[in-house]
Structure formats: C-alpha cells, structure tokens
Design a protein that fits this description.
Helix content: 25-40%
Number of domains: 2
CATH topology of the largest domain: Rossmann fold
CATH superfamily of the largest domain: Succinyl-CoA synthetase domains
Distance between the termini: 33 Å
CATH class of the largest domain: Alpha Beta
Low-confidence stretches: none
Strand order of the largest sheet: 3-4-2-1-5-6-7
Largest sheet: 7 strands, mixed
Order of helices and strands: EHEEEHEHEHEEEEHEHEHEHEH
CATH architecture of the largest domain: 3-Layer(aba) Sandwich
Length: 296
C-alpha cells in the first residue's frame, strides 16, 4: 500500500504541451510513472511525448481511465483546471502552479468539496512514492523506497529530508509536498493523517515553516493518536523577522503563535522529535525509531 500515488496510478498532465509540462512529464515518464496522456485545449487529437493529447480532462478520463492529474497551467487559469479535473472524476490532483490568486483558490477549494478528490498544492513539488510513481517536479534520484513518510511545506526541504533519511540507511514510503500558499488543498494535519494510517509507513518527517497554524493543528492530531508512530519535525524560518514574507506566500509571522519558536514548542509538547537543523533529521529519525528519549 502507498499514499495517494503508486505504480497503478494513471496520470494525465494538464498543460501537457507547454514548456514546463513537457519537461516534467518527460521526467515523470523516465522515472516510470504511468503517464497516460495530457490535456491542452485546442490540441486534442494530436500526440506529444508519444502520449495522446485531449482537449478536456473529461475526454482524457473517458479515453484513458486516468485517476491522477498534475497541473502545469498558468496562474490565471489554474483554479479552473483544478475544478475541471474534479468535475471529470480525477481522484488526486497535484497543482504545481505558483502564483494562483488567493481569491481563485478560495473558490476552487470550496468547489471541490463536493467531489471525492484530494488536492495537493498549489505551489508545491508534488507527491512521490519511490520506485513506483513520481507526480511532481522533485529529483527522483534522491528518493529511495522505504518506510518513512515525509510531509513538507517546502520543496527544497522535502528533498533534503529525503536525502537525510536515505543517508541514515532508511527509505521513503511516500513524500508529500503540500505547498506553501495560504490556501492549499491538503494541510499538514491531513497529509500526516494519511501517513499515520498507512500500514507501510513506520514513522513520519513533518517539515513546516513560519506563518499559519497548520503545524499546531497537526501536532495536536499526532498527540491525539497517542503518538502511535514517531514523528521528527523541523520548522523553517527560525530567524525570520516579524511581518516579512519569507519565500512562500503563506510564510509570514502574523502573531506570537506563528513564529518558529512557538511552533517548535507546541511540537515538543506533543511528543514530536524536534530538530533545530534539517541536517539532524536522519540521525534523529534513527533515535525515534529506537524509542530513545526526545531530549537525547
């Protein structure tokens, strides 16, 4: 079992023939992901990367049986692309696009509540189940199969965490880059819950950043499970000044509870193994798996 994507996933690419869609679709195909086609309005009936191109997601689903979509559509049209995918019956939507207007995402997120769909992103690196499927823009070679799940707001830190886990002699079950925008489809808690309920995931790395309350909510959930799986946590932005946006649109300290220090305190109180630097993720995960004290 895996979370969200696996070797049986049938993936389509929205924005297939654009430069970004083309590059990353090729990378996904080379990784072994089952990319069954793509969508570019007006180019239906043609072929691209030896895969069929469709005018609509509905047509792509009908002809290929696709159940996963990855979106490389420009910001002005990306929210519509998300809603179109949900309408067509796609079960997992991965929105890579950065810069989608917040008001568009508010509308899209409310709209897709009516469907049996999981949205990852936007402004995210995607999802990877190593050795099975890469639905995103992450460098696949960093990830090795294993039993450690990763949930991260940051793309770069997703890769760093994976590298640390692999160097510790462990591997990854599924890594989920949830995205750093203020409005995203799957907040930290929901992603952690997927991995917490996955029988092939033994422990979880949770990477957050300043701004918002996602990490606090996730920490409360982890504590409520009785810490049934060990979690190693890191918060980026420990030196960020108040009121200044750092990188992601959602990474801004709005109040006392938004700071890295406040989040790390909540995480520690919830039984999470908190690290001060991502360089310590691997060694700390080894301690967590052995059940060593958090202060060790």
């Amino acid at each position: 079992m895996s979370v969200l994507v696996n070797k049986d996933s049938k993936v389509i690419v929205q924005g297939f023939t654009g430069s970004e869609g083309t590059f990353h679709a090729q990378q996904m195909i080379e990784y072994g992901t089952n990319v069954v086609g793509g969508v570019t309005p007006g180019k239906g009936g043609s072929s691209h990367l030896e895969r069929p191109v469709f005018n609509t997601v509905a047509e792509a689903v009908q002809k290929t049986g696709a159940n996963v979509s990855i979106i490389f559509v420009p910001p002005a049209f990306a929210a519509d692309a998300i809603m179109e995918a949900a309408d067509a019956g796609i079960k997992v939507i991965v929105a890579i696009t950065e810069g989608i207007p917040t008001k568009d995402m508010i509308f899209a997120k409310e709209y897709i509540k009516n469907f049996d769909v999981t949205l990852i992103g936007p402004n995210c690196p995607g999802v990877i189940t190593p050795g099975e499927a890469k639905v995103g823009i992450m460098p696949g070679f960093v990830f090795e199969p294993g039993r450690i799940g990763i949930v991260s707001k940051s793309g770069t830190l997703t890769y760093e965490a994976a590298d640390q886990i692999v160097k510790a002699g462990l591997g990854i079950s599924t890594a989920i880059g949830i995205g750093g925008d203020p409005i995203i489809g799957t907040p930290t808690k929901d992603a952690v819950e997927l991995l917490m309920n996955d029988p092939e995931t033994d422990a979880i790395v949770m990477i957050g950043e300043i701004g918002g309350n996602y990490e606090a909510v996730a920490s409360e959930y982890i504590k409520s499970t009785g810490n049934k799986k060990p979690v190693v946590g890191f918060i980026a932005g420990q030196t960020a000044p108040k009121g200044r946006r750092m990188g992601h649109a959602g990474a801004i300290i709005g109040g006392a509870d938004d700071t890295a220090a406040a989040k790390m305190k909540i995480m520690r109180e919830s039984g999470i193994y908190v690290v001060e630097s991502p360089a310590n993720i691997g060694e700390t995960m080894l301690k967590a798996l052995k059940g060593e004290p958090i202060s060790a």
